[in-house]
Amino acid sequence: MAEQPIQRGRLRPAPEHFLNEADVQAVEAGRRGFLRKALVTASAAMAATTVARAEDGDPAILTLPPWTTSLGQPVAARPYGLPSQYEKGLQRRESPGLTRMSQVSVAFTPLQGLFGIVTPSGLHFERHHQGWSDIDPSKHRLMINASDDGFIRAPRVYTVDDILRLPPVSRMHFIECGANTGMEWGNVAVPTVQYTHGMLSCSEFTGVPLRTLLDDCGVNWKKARYVLAEGADGSSMTRTIPIELVESGEVLVAYGQNGEMLRPENGYPLRLVVPGVQGVSWVKWLRRIEVGDQPWATKDEAIHYVDLLPGGQHRQYTSIQECKSVITTPSGGQMLLDKGFYNISGLAWSGRGKITRVDVSTDGGVNWRSARIDGPVHGKCLTRFNIDWVWDGRPAILQSRAVDDTGYVQPRYGQLRAVRGTKSIYHNNAIQSWKVAETGEVSNVQVL
């Protein structure tokens, strides 16, 4: 599971004279005062460094590089934009430790190298139960029917063009596999945040509310209790979804992602978007919706995606992704190169609503400080947090703890295991810990 390093993966410290003991006291007295002082100090340091380099004849400053003295490439050389060749180390990666038989695989998003809350479509995590296909949209259909008479008045079959003609909506939502962080249940400390939390992504999805289509078919909202979503992939993925989620208008039949059509591996030409619910219910290559009054207990919800409790019982249809967060930098596999100022950054999310607060600890949960919430805060969407930290060179344990607008507080491992035991695979939302050694190496460690 080795990762190819990228430049951002190794955190770059400020110069030694960036901070002194007075700066550390300023951090404790107040973040704003510290930042003002730090910025002034940094500006002076950068100015001095620039002068020194100019005097030394730094070729990167004094000698014009080839790209400044020649013509660049034309637009025609790259009609569809691609990342820089210098960013090729940032990519999705598979884990040999998970279920993998030919086309059955998982690709993890490199959370450690992303900014903000939007996941680029090319880095969106993937979970395939029978491989992906690039489906001809002119031959794809979506059928809406019922398990019995009286649930809908007029079953219909829609073409992709039929759905594209309807009024669209666009919304930002996270999608997380129910097995995300699953390996941590058994104290398996996988090395990096890409493998601990990388079955998580966030995009702007565009489509038509499933409610619109059900209304068009004349659904009986008083009688209907569930819908069954079926995919066109080789596994015929099928999932039961409570009707109240559909009736709220949140569930989308989506064709767009991040401003363009869905990628084939993410369900092109149609997929379901079920905000706040585990990713397996976001059925890809959507071909059928069936309306009924009871769960279907299909293979992927009767023997998979269930939670084994300490008493031997299974929790079934536990689809909501509870409030959760993770520090993405510094995180496992990275390195602090020197003592001094660092920005701790991470992501928080909740399947029940909006994130209202994120606390960060640098001493394993003994003391907590509230982080800054930066950027937009949407319901059932990733939220970016940041906080200032001055590393004194001693061992530290970094943690984040999210709170959502229902008042739910992300639990410690001890709290979660007291209720769920240790034999689960799915729905692990415990606090993640990263240990910083005296050498600056950051590794995965569990704290109860």
Quote the CATH topology of the largest domain: Sulfite Oxidase, Chain A, domain 2
Shape: globular
β-strand percent reads 25-35%
Distance between the termini: 26 Å
* Oligomer description: single chain
Structural class: alpha+beta
Low-confidence stretches: 1-10, 12-52
Radius of gyration: 25 Å
Number of domains: 3
Under CATH, the homologous superfamily of the largest domain reads: Oxidoreductase, molybdopterin-binding domain
Average per-residue pLDDT, rounded, comes to: 87
Tell me the strand order in the biggest sheet. Answer: 6-5-14-9-10
- According to CATH, what is the class of the largest domain? Alpha Beta
- Can you summarize the main beta sheet? 5 strands, mixed
Helical content stands at 10-25%
The number of E-state strands comes to 26
- Number of contiguous helices: 9
What does this 3D model show about the protein?
This protein has 448 residues and is an alpha+beta fold. It has 3 domains: 50 residues, no CATH class; 217 residues, Sulfite Oxidase, Chain A, domain 2 (Alpha-Beta Complex), CATH 3.90.420; 122 residues, Immunoglobulin-like. 16% of the residues lie in helices and 29% in strands. The protein is built from 9 helices and 26 strands. It has a 5-stranded mixed beta sheet with strand order 6-5-14-9-10. Strands 7, 8, 11, 12 and 13 form a 5-stranded antiparallel beta sheet that branches. A 5-stranded antiparallel beta sheet has the order 21-20-24-25-26, with no helix packed on it. The protein is globular and about 80 Å long. The N terminus is likely disordered.
